[in-house]
Amino acid sequence: MSHQSKKVVEKETILNVGFDDTDSPKGMCTTFLAYKIVDSLKKQKIEFLDFPRLIRFNPNIPWKTRGNGAVSFKVKTKNPSKIKNQIKNLVSKYSDTKNGANPGLVFFESDEIPSVFTEFSKLALWQLIHRKNAKIFAKKNNLEVYYQGNGQGLVGAIGAIGYDFHDHTLELLSYRKKPKFGKERKISTESVKNMQEKTSPSTFNSFDTKKGRVLITPHGPDPVFYGVRGENVDSLVYATKILKTPEKLDGYMIFKSNQGTGDHLKNELTFENMKPYASGKISGIVANTPKIVKGGHVFFKITSKNHDFWCAVYKPTGMTVVASHLLKGDKICVGGGVRKASKNFPRIINLEFLDIISLVKNTSLSNPECNKCNKKMKSKGLNQGFECIRCGAKASKKISIENSRKIKNQLYLPEISAHRHLSRPLQRIGTINQSTKFDNSLSWFCVYEK
Fold first, then answer.
1. Are 299 and 342 in contact (CB under 8 A)?
2. Model confidence over 101-142: pLDDT tens digits?
3. Which of 18, 213, 289, 325 could form a disulfide with 72 if both were Cys (CB 3.0 to 4.6 A apart)?
4. In 3-state terms, what secondary structure has residue 19?
5. By CB neighbour count within 10 A (0-12 exposed, 13-18 middle, 19+ buried), where does 153 fall?
6. What is the pLDDT of residues 372-414, one digit of tens each?
């Protein structure tokens, strides 16, 4: 290698970019902004070092828009300041600040991501992190930040750069052309069903066969037309060829994501860390008979490490029947988000899964049976024993019989329509995807011909 070319290599910088909270309930979308940025950088032949990352953080944050997703990506460049300015301009242009978006943008120049970033990201996955803490973090770590509004987006922006994947999925998001934003999405239901049959288990949660519902199209005014989640690039690109819509779409981009990993529920909840809006899991013993309330929702208590915790299973999850069959003494592990205390209830864990570890015997007392006549004996009155009305045989006390339980030792998940972005679907239980190789020539990004 000549001295001169060595110099050029040394001047290349690896730039990590993270951003979040550029959308509002009325429009825009953080992933669409990413699509626009990538399009602009690819035209300048900027080298991407990995898929853009779409990281979903704690789904219980009250002020999130839709799926609480932040985006980051990593590029190699000789002119980082030029790129930073371009990205800043695009963030300003495509953020819905007039409807309450609070965009945050973070730049970090380094190939290695320090562990403080990863720790911050882990916390954002299951706790409520105040924007003040994000600003302190940025200052302490000399980050170049840019934000509008109250800067809430900085939390996700830092977290998206720091996220450490142990398992991942991919999502192909296809985008609409501008005149179509906010208009009804028309997609052939049959083609979605067909796509799921042909690509499963390499894709997941595209169609709810039980309810006949399409799960890949959002319902809001944002620019996304559909999103297909899966395990590898080829299956996702194949899916786009099967799906049928009369609408001419703009293009698509594939993100590496933590969707479908259940990562937000890995943390053990305790009496100390169970703050409002936290997500996690807890093991314990059912402490009371479940109550079914109006609307069919089920509430029960579990005892864990000498503390009682209320759990709620809501009707749309489809897990209420299972919850209603629990008995005092059953050992279970539950996962979900903590709802803050209200006038009528203390803090409650809204369940996203119910894993039955062991069930108590369900016994009840019954009048004894006459061995000779195979008939139940009748009581002769209080404390006077029992007698067979056919042959006169006698017995002194009731007998204990074991009734079968209607539930089993197994994991119960919500119905697919009630899954959150991060929920781990049944077909992903026990699978870990670490293998997706990034290849810049792969079709992870595509703008359709005009």
1. no
2. 788 899 999 999 999 999 999 999 999 899 999 999 999 998
3. 18
4. strand
5. buried
6. 999 999 999 888 999 999 999 999 999 999 999 999 999 999 9
Query: Which of the two residues, 250 and 434, has the higher pLDDT score?
Result: 250
Contact residues for 149 (Cβ-Cβ < 8 A; gap 6+): 21, 97, 100, 101, 102, 103
Among 105, 127, 125, smallest CA distance to 165 is for: 125
- Measured distance CA(351)–CA(214) in Å, rounded: 24
> What are the DSSP calls for 41-61, one per residue?
HHHTTPEE-S--EEEE--TT-
Question: Mean of the pLDDT values across residues 327-351?
Answer: 93
Q: CA 352, 356, 361: angle at the middle one, nearest 5?
A: 145
1-9 long-range contacts, Cβ below 8 Å, gap at least 24? 8/78
CA-CA distance, 87 to 94, in Å (whole number)? 10
**Domain 263-359+405-421, classified CATH 2.40.50.1010, yes or no:** yes
Please give the Cα distance from 32 to 149 (Å, whole number).
20
User: Yes or no: is domain 169-257 CATH 3.40.50.150?
Assistant: no
Architecture of domain 3-164 in this structure: 2-Layer Sandwich (3.30)
348 contacts 428 by C-beta, under 8 angstroms: no
Express each pLDDT in 254-295 by its tens digit: 999 999 999 999 999 999 999 999 999 999 999 999 999 999
Q: Please state, as a whole number, how many other Cβ atoms lie within 10 Å of the Cβ of residue 391.
A: 11
Between the CA of residue 266 and those of 116, 199, 270, 355, what are the distances in Å? 19, 28, 13, 14
* Residues in Cβ contact with 351 at an 8 Å cutoff, skipping those fewer than 6 apart: 311, 312, 313, 317, 319, 323, 334, 335, 336
Reduced to 3 states (helix: H, G, I; strand: E, B; else coil), residue 238 is helix
Q: Which residues contact 181 (CB under 8 A, 6 or more apart)?
A: 27, 221, 222, 223
Output Rg (C-alpha) for the chain, integer angstroms.
28
